[in-house]
């Protein structure tokens, strides 16, 4: 692979960090037990148009939420504005997302995703959660896609390496959800070209 690795590529109005293409990742729930939903100092980033969808799904997931989470939602709603001025899901105890629930093994799950998979809601979950470990950032008229590193996900990095699964392939479904099939096809073509040029393995 070339030593002068390019830092990013551009497709339409998106700028993609090369780490999203080169780094390996695959969630390992048995290892982390869903820790990403209950760690951190703020909730999950939420788009303005997702607030209504969160509120619409609330009656379905309400019975699965903890009493503490229900109290927080009753008091401040499903979202709040964090210290950076970003809209995020409400949290409990300063870290847990209010939409978390647990199974009999103590594994943490997203109640929104559970409702979606059971056919009880049409809303999967906030796009920021679905896209993790890719984070989106608006830069002028463009959207930047960056790979986010977090110690909580170290086992996901190991599993991704074992499977040789790049981040962008692990996140094919949410990337298509956000940017569309045509965009993802262009991304795959760009990756193929970068490999041929020696910028990617």
TrEMBL record:
Organism domain of life: Bacteria
InterPro entries linked: Rv0495c (IPR021458)
Pfam assignment, any one: DUF3109
Family statement drawn from the similarity comment of this UniProt entry: Belongs to the Rv0495c family.
The protein's name: DUF3109 family protein
Species assigned in the record: Paraprevotella clara YIT 11840
């Amino acid at each position: 692979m070339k030593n002068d690795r390019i830092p990013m590529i551009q497709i339409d109005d998106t700028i993609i960090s090369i780490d999203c293409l080169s780094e390996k990742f695959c969630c390992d729930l048995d290892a982390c037990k869903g820790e990403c939903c209950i760690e951190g100092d703020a909730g999950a980033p939420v788009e303005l148009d997702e607030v209504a969808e969160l509120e619409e799904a609330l009656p379905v997931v309400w019975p699965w939420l903890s009493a503490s989470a229900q109290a927080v939602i009753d008091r401040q709603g499903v979202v709040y504005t964090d210290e950076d001025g970003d809209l995020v899901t409400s949290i409990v105890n300063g870290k847990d997302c209010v939409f978390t629930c647990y199974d009999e093994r103590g594994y943490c799950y997203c109640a929104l995703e559970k409702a979606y998979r059971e056919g009880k809601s049409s809303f999967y979950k906030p796009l920021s959660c679905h896209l993790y470990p890719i984070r989106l950032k608006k830069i002028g008229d463009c959207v930047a896609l960056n790979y986010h590193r977090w110690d909580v996900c170290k086992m996901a990095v190991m599993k991704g390496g074992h499977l040789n699964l790049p981040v962008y392939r692990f996140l094919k479904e949410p990337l298509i959800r956000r940017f569309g099939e045509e965009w993802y096809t262009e991304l795959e073509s760009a990756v193929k070209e970068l490999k041929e040029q020696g910028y990617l393995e």
